Amino acid sequence: MLVSHQAIRTVAAKSLALLTCLVGSVALAQGTSVLFGTILDASTKQPVPDVVVTARAPTLQGEQVAVTDEAGQYRLPQLPSGEYTLSFAKEAYRPFSRDGVTLRLGYSVRVNVELIPESALSEEIVVVGHAPTIDVGSTSTGRNINAELMRNIVVIAPGGKNAAARSFEALAELAPGAVTDAYGTSISGATSPENQYLIDGISVNDPSTGLNGTPLSIEFIEEVNVLTGGYLPEFGRATGGVVNVVTKSGSNEFHGSLFGNYTPGAFANSGRELRQEVDTISGRESLWNLGDVGVEVGGPFLRDKLWFYVGLAPSFTRYQLERNLNVRVLDENGRTVKDEDGFTRTQRIEGTQRHFFADQRSLQYIGKLTYQVSQNHTVALSVLGTPASSGGPGRFSLLPENGAPEVTVIQGAPEALSTQRLQGGLDLGLKASSSFFNKYLLLDATLGWHHQDNAIRASDGTRAGSGAGLSGISQVGWERDRPYEHSLRDFESLPEPSVCGLTPEEAALRCPAFGYLTGGPGLLEERTLDRYQGRLVGTLLVRAAGQHVLKAGLDAEWMRYDHLRAASGGSRMFESQEGDYFEDDIQYGHLLGPDQARLLDSYRALSRSRTLGAFVQDSWSMLDLVTFNLGLRYDTQWLRARDEQALVLAHQWSPRLGFILDPTRSGRSRLFASYARYFENIPLDLIDNAFPIEPKVLSRKSSALCNPLDPVRREACSTDLARLPYAGPFDSPVDPSRLWRVQGSSSALVDPNIQPQSTDEWVAGGELELRPHLSVGLSYTRRSLNRIVESMSRDGGRTYFIGNPGYGLGQDFDKATRTYDAGTLFLQRTFAEQWLFQASYTLSYLRGNYEGLFRSETDELNPNNNTDFDSPSLSINREGPLPADRTHQFQVFAAREIGFGPDLSLQLGLSYFSGSGTPYNHLGKDAVFDRAQVFILPRGSAGRLPWFHRIDTRLALSYKLTKTLTASAGVDVFNLFNFQAVSAYDEEYTRSVVRPLQNGTRQDLPKLRDLEDGEPIGPQKLNPNFGKPIAYQLPRSIRFGARLSF
Amino acid sequence: MTRHLLGLTTIAALIASCDTRQPALGCPVEGVDWVATYKPVGKNKCLALPGELLGLQKYIQPSGEQLLALKPQMLNDMDPTNELDPEHPPYSLGVLPAEADAEGFCNVSSVSVAEKHVPEDPEEFLPADAVYRWSNVRLVALPEVPGTQLIANLEYTEDGCTAQYEVWAMWPGDLDCADEDSPDEPDDSLCQHSESIPPDFAVTCDPDLLLCVPARRPPSLLSAPALQQRATHPSNSFGVDGKNQGRKR
Predict the structure, then answer these.
(1) How many Å apart are CA A656 and CA A48, to the nearest integer?
(2) Which residues 81-100 in chain B show a CB within 8 A of chain A?
(3) Least buried of A324, A982, A1006, A1024, by fewest C-beta within 10 Å?
(4) Residue A809 and residue B4: Cβ atoms within 8 Å?
(5) Would you call A809 and B72 a contact, using CB atoms and an 8 Å cutoff?
(6) In contact, A191 and A884? CB cutoff 8 Å
(7) Is A615 in CB contact (< 8 Å) with chain B?
(8) Does residue A9 have a pLDDT over 90?
(9) E strands of A709-850, at which residues?
(10) pLDDT interval class at A812 (50, 70, 90)
(11) Does B61 contact chain A (CB < 8 Å)?
(12) Which chain B residues contact residue A596 at CB under 8 A?
C-alpha cells in the first residue's frame, strides 16, 4: 500500500489541531466492532477479488461498504454493534446476502462466504448456513449485554445505588464471576473502584474515588460490554474490569419511547427483621416508593447526513425512617436483663414513635448529534447529565455510595444527623472518526469532559463554612460515662418522664443516651471534580505474512478535585468521660507557634492529576487460523497538591500478549491465551487527604463555661477562656503547646523509589459454536498483584508515608497480596427464533491480605490510603480469603417471546443468580486505629456466609397499536421467591483493644486479653451481636413498567 | 506510516518520561515526644545529665518560614503549669530550612535560649535554675530517617554549673526498655524488637533513662543511609546482613 507521508502529516496535524482546539469536550464511540472474512468461489474454492460487500443494520447510520482484495478478503471496521445484513455482489456471481449477523461491541466476527458463479447454475453447491457469533479477534472475557438482554431479562434491583435511575453499572454483575461489593461490582477479584467505566469511550469514573461518576439510565444505552480480562492496551488505567457503554444514536428512521416504572413500597416485602442490640433509641428503614418516567427519541435531521438522539428521565426514591424510644427493663435488683439472644431487654415507650423520610430526586438526560461529513468522516457530539439532590429541611438524604438512607437509627437530634446532598454530573463528548485509503487507515479522535459537583450541606441548605443556619452550629457527641451516663431526659421531652425513673442516676440506667448527637450536622463539604480527556487512535491495516491491524494511540487526561470542607460551627466536639470538658474532634487550623492557633472556618484542598500515555498494538492474523495480539501501553501519572508535585507514578509499561487459534478456520471456534499487566490510575482522594493531611488544631473546652445545648453559653465554647491545658496523666508533658494539640498539616512523605500499582493477568480458554447461535466455552483467569501503593505509618498514625508495602521505605511491612483464580464454564444461546439462553458457572478463589481500593470491614473508601498497611502490627492474620471470595457462582438467563397473532406478543424473562457465601472474620479494636482493625484470628476463619439464590422475572405484554406504534406493559419481580439469605454478619468480636492471636484458632479465643486492663476478654467484653446477621438479601419487590414506543 | 505512528508514540513516551522524580523530602519533623541522650563533650565537672524527653514541634508561618520548637522535660518539670516563671517559656525556637543539605541534614538556625528560674524545692530533686543553649541543631531528613533523628550541641547550665554535650535524639521517644523482672535494669532486646522503631534504626536501651535511644551518632542506622548507596544499588538499600549484624550487637 502506498500512502504519502504528506497525507499522513496533514491528517495527523488536523487531528491534533482538533484535539487542541476542542479541549473541554468528550467523544463517543462510533463503533469498535469488525466484520471480516474471505470470499471464495464456491466451485473452484479460489478467492474472489473485487466483491462489493455492503453492511446494513438498524444501528448503523447509512451503510458501510468494502471491496475484497486479491486474496478475497474484506474488512468492515468501526462498526457499531447490532444485527447486520451483509450483501455480496460481483459480476458473474449470483448476488448473495446474509442476514442475522450478530455483532457485539468490540467483537471481530468472521463471516466467510462462498459465492456461486452464474455459470454454475446447474451444479449443486451447498453454501454454509448461518453466520458465526464468536469473537475471533480478541482474548477478552466477560459479558456483552445487548438490547435483547436488557429488554427481556435485566431486572435492576430496586434498592441500592442509583436504583431508581436504573443505572448501567448494575449490569456489571451479569458478567460471569462478578461479585457485588460494597460500592459496586468486583470484577476478577478487584474492588469496584478499580474498574474503568467508559461511556462512548470517555472515562466517567469519579476522579476522587474511582467509582462510577455518571449513573446513566439503561434506557439510553444501546449496549454494555463488561470486559473481565484479556483486553488490549487501548484499554488501560484500570486494575479491575472495563465496563464499556455505548449510548443509543439516531438513525434514518424516527424511533423513540415514553416509559415509566414504579416500585411501590407497599408491595415490597419488608425483609427479615434484624435482631440487634436495641438501645433506648431504635429505628428501621423501609422503602416507601421509587420510580422513573422518561422519554427518548432519535431520528434524522438530514437523512443520511445528520442524526439526533435525545432523552430525559426524572426519577425519585423515598424511604421511610421509623424512630422509637425504649426503656431498659430492670430486674428486682435494678440490673439490666438479657434476653435469650444475649441482648439487653428493652420496652418501647408509648407515644414516642416518629417517622421521617429520606428522599432523593434525580434527572437523567442525554443529547447526541451525529454528522456524517462524508462516507469516510463522521463527527459525533454528545452531552449527558445526571444531576440529583437528596434530603432537605426535615428530611434525610441517601448516601450516593450505596443508595441507603444516611442513618437508620436516629441516635440524636434529627438536625444533627441529617444533611442535604447534591450531585451534579455532566459529560460532554466529541468524537471524530475518519477513514482513508479504502478504510486501510482509520483515525479516531475523542475529546471528553467529565464534570461532577457534589455537596453535603446542612438539611436547611446552608453550605460548608458559611456559618449560617445549621452550618453555624457545632455538632456535639455526648459521651460522659462517669459518674453516670446522660439519659434521654437530658435531650428530649418524653410524654411521661418518670418512665425513665425519678433520679438522673436511675434515668442513666433505664434510658441511657451515650453517644447522643446534638447541634449541627458536623462535617460538610463542597466538591468540584473534573476530568478532561483526549485520545487519538490510528488504525492501519497492513498485509504482511497475514493480516495486521496495527493500532497506535495517544491518551491524555487531566483531573482536578477542588474540595472544601468545614465542620458546622467551626468544630465538632465530644464530651469527656467525666463530663468536665468538650474536646474538638475536627477544628481546622494551624499553629504558628506554641499555643498560637490560627483557626480556619473551612479547609480547601486542590488536587490535580495529569496522565499521559500511549499505546501500540498489532492484531496479526494468519491463514484464517491464528491471531496474535501484541501490544504495549505506557502511562505516567503526575499528581499535584495545590501547585506542588506530590507524587509521580512513572513508567507504567504494560505489555499485553495474546493469541487466538480458530481450528475451524471459519470463525466458529477460538482457543485463546493472554498475558497482560494492568496499572492503576490513582484517584485524587489520596492527594486530597494526604498532601497535606487535613490541618487540625484541637483543644479542650471546660464544661463549666461551655454548654453547647444552651444558645447563650454555646458562644463560650469557642473562646480561649474556656480552654483547658492538656495536663492529664496521658498528655505529653513536653509538647511546646499546652492548650492545643496539632493533627495533620504535614504532607505524607513519598518513597523516592515508589513504583506504580499493578496487577498481572493470565487468561486461557476456548469457545466452540456447537450449533447455530449456540456456543459453549471454558476460560481460566489468574490475577496477582505486583506492588501496591498505600499509606503506611510507623508512628501510630501520626505521620504517614506513601510507598509500596514490602519494598523500599515500606520494607518492614508485609507485601500486599491478592491472587484470583477463576474457571468459568459457559453456554450461550444468542437471541434467535424468539428465545435466548445463557448459563455460566464460575469456580474462583480470591486470597490475600489486600482487598483493594476500599476496606469493607470498616466501610473505608480511601483509595491507596486505607488502614490496611498503616502499621506493621496490623498485618498480623490479614492473609486469607478476601471479602469478595465467592467460591461457586451460577448465573442463568433465559428469555422467550411468544406471539399471539400479528399484534400481540408476550415477553418472558428469567434470571437466576446463586453463589456460595463469602468469608467473615473475628475483628477487634486496635489501640490506635480503632475498632474492627485487628484480625484476632487469621482472615476468614470465622466461617462463611450461607449460599444465596435469587430469581428475577420479567413479564411484558406488547401490543402493536399501529404499524409503528407499540404499547407494552410489564411487571418485574426482583427476588421472586423472597429468598432471605444473610448477606452480612457482625464481624466485631470485641470492642476492647486486643492484640491478634497470630495463626490462632477458635480454641485460642479464651486467651484473648484486653490490652487496656490486661484482663482476659470475658463474656461482658464480647460483642453480643458477633456472628449474628446484620444484613439480609434484598427482599422481594415488584416494579411495574409501561412503555409506548415507535 | 507505521514508523510515523511508532515515532509519535515514542515521542510521547519520551515527553512523558521526563521529570518523574518524586518531590523533595523537605524538612519534616515526625512526632512530638522525642528522647535525647546527652553525650558529654570534654571534661564535665557538673553532675552529668544522661538525657531526657524532648518535645519537638514544627510551625509553618504564613510566609512559609518554618519554626522548630524544642522543649526539654526538665524545664517542664521545674514549672509544669508555667506559673512559677511565666517570663521564660520552657522551649527554644529556631528556624528550620525548607530543604536538607546534600548530606541529608536540615540545619536549624537562630535557636533561642530556653531557661527556667524557680524557687528551690528540695523534695523534687530538680534544679532551681536551668539554661539550655542549643547550637548546631541538625535534623536528619533522609528517606529512611524522615525527620525522626536529630543531632545537636548543647550547653547546659544547671544551678550555675555548665556542661557541654552532644545530643543524639530520636523519635519515638517514649519506648520503655526497663527489664520486666528487675525494673531498674535495661533490657536491650525490648528496643531491638520494638515494633514502633523502624527495623533499620540502630538503637540501644539507655541504662539511665530506661528508654530506647539512638545507638550511633545520627543518622543512627544499621547500614549506611541508602541515599548514598542508591546511585549504585537502587533496589538493595537495606542489606539484610547489615540488619542482622546490627541486631546481634
Answers:
(1) 35
(2) 81-82, 89-91, 93
(3) A1006
(4) no
(5) no
(6) yes
(7) yes
(8) no
(9) 723-724, 741-743, 749-750, 758-771, 774-785, 790-792, 801-803, 818-832, 835-848
(10) confident
(11) yes
(12) 59
CB distance from A540 to chain B under 8 Å? yes
Cβ neighbours for B231, distance < 8 A, ≥ 6 positions apart: none
Residue A24 forms contact with B (CB below 8 Å) = no
Report residue A189 as a C-alpha cell. 477479584
The one-letter code for the residue type at A137 is G
A854 CB-near residues (< 8 Å, 6+ apart): A182, A183, A191, A193, A860, A861, A862, A863, A866
- Say yes or no to pLDDT of B5 above 60: no
Three-point CA angle A329, A335, A337, nearest 5°: 50
On the question of pLDDT at A797 being above 70, the answer is no
CA dist A903 and A14 (Å) reads 52
- By residue count, chain A amounts to 1046
What is the predicted pLDDT for the residue at A796? 65
Q: Residue A751: its chain B contacts at CB < 8 A? A: 22, 143
Closest C-alpha to A433, from A446, A422, A421: A446
How many whole angstroms separate alpha carbon A923 and alpha carbon A931? 8
As for the ipTM of the complex, it is 0.87
Q: Is there a cis peptide before residue A207, judged by omega within 30 degrees of 0?
A: no
Name the residue with cell 497538591.
Answer: A641
Sorting pLDDT into bands at 50, 70 and 90, what band is A14? Answer: very low
HEC string of A332-384?
Answer: CCCCECECCCCCECEEECCCCCEEEEEEEEEEEEEEEEEEEEECCEEEEEEEE
**Nearest beta carbon to residue B32 from set A612, A732, A752:** A732
Average pLDDT in chain B: 84
pLDDT in tens, A423-438: 999 999 999 988 888 7
**Which residues, listed in sequence order, are joined to residue A245 by a DSSP beta bridge?**
A199, A224
**pLDDT in the model for residue B245:** 29
Instruction: Tell me which of A109-123, A392-406, A505-519, A809-823 is least confident.
Output: A109-123
B 16-35 → A contacts, CB under 8 A: 16-17, 19-23, 25, 28-34
Q: Are B226 and B246 in contact (CB under 8 A)?
A: no
Q: How far apart are CA A666 and CA A938, in angstroms?
A: 52
For A144-213, give the DSSP string. EE-HHHHHHT----SSSTTTTTTBGGGGGGGSTT-EEETTEEE-TT--GGGSEEEETTEE-B-TTT-SBS
Decide if B12 and A614 are in contact by the 8 Å CB cutoff: yes
Backbone angles phi, psi at A873, to 5 degrees: -70, -25
Confidence of residue A839 (pLDDT cuts 50, 70, 90): very high
Give per-residue pLDDT as tens, B186-220: 999 999 988 788 888 999 999 999 999 999 999 99
Burial of A363 (0-12, 13-18, 19+ CB in 10 A): middle
Could A735 and B55 be called an inter-chain contact, meaning their C-beta atoms sit closer than 8 Å? Answer: yes
Mean pLDDT, residues A804-816 taken together: 91
pLDDT of residue A147: 77
> Chain A: residue nearest B19 by CA?
A648
- Alpha carbon of A632: minimum distance to chain B alpha carbons (Å): 11
Residue of B nearest to A612 (CA): B16
B31 to A798: CB separation less than 8 angstroms, yes or no: yes
Residues of A in contact with B22 (CB under 8 A): 645, 647-648, 750-752, 754
A3 contact residues in B (CB cutoff 8 A): 1
A647 touches chain B (CB under 8 A): yes
Interface of A with B in 729-788 (CB under 8 A): 732-738, 742, 745-746, 749-754
